[in-house]
Amino acid sequence: MRYRKGFETKENIINVSKKLFYELGYTKATVQNIADTAQIPLGLIPYYFKTKDNIVLEINSKFYLEIYEFVNSRLNIKKNSYYKLFIVTSIYYRIILEDQHNKKFFYEVLRNKSNFRALSNSIERLYSMISKENNNNFTKIDLDCIMIAEFGARRELLLNYFEEKIDIDIDYLVKTLSSVTGRFFSIPNDIIAQYAEKEKEFSTEYDYSHIKFLY
Fold first, then answer.
1. 211 is a domain residue
2. Does the pLDDT at position 147 exceed 80?
């Protein structure tokens, strides 16, 4: 009973945070706002989430996992981890970038250097599989460095896009973001181009509109 109540409280904090982040953005949605809206004492939130960034990371991890499970259940493939990752990454960014509230929140998170690097824990195994499938023979240190470099590259590209320093449309941006991993793993350009076309086919065939980033 006690465990269930704790779980419900944690989920309540997450759901309230998603709503406030969607409506107010990352900066204006304070921990006090979250506590007040969730109708819990402010001092209770650190018991579940040490900082506001930890709430963001939890939201992002759940979001990413939901997309991964959606894609994985519909792709009948076993030994092409990068193809699967390409589609997951594309859907991930499309959902964020095609909604102005999600987009604003995501920009504020990146701009404030609060980041989703902890998401690397969710994809470390996937990167190891990509390395083996493509005979890269990368060590764990190699993969750690790739994930850090990849995050930095995506962050800079997104910040330049949000701040209108580069003139590209969402389709081009999503394709580029989803291609970054392939570049590090030496996936040929023609293969990456094929996956970009297959991602469009997948997104046309399967409706993922029920998957939400925030609210």
1. no
2. yes
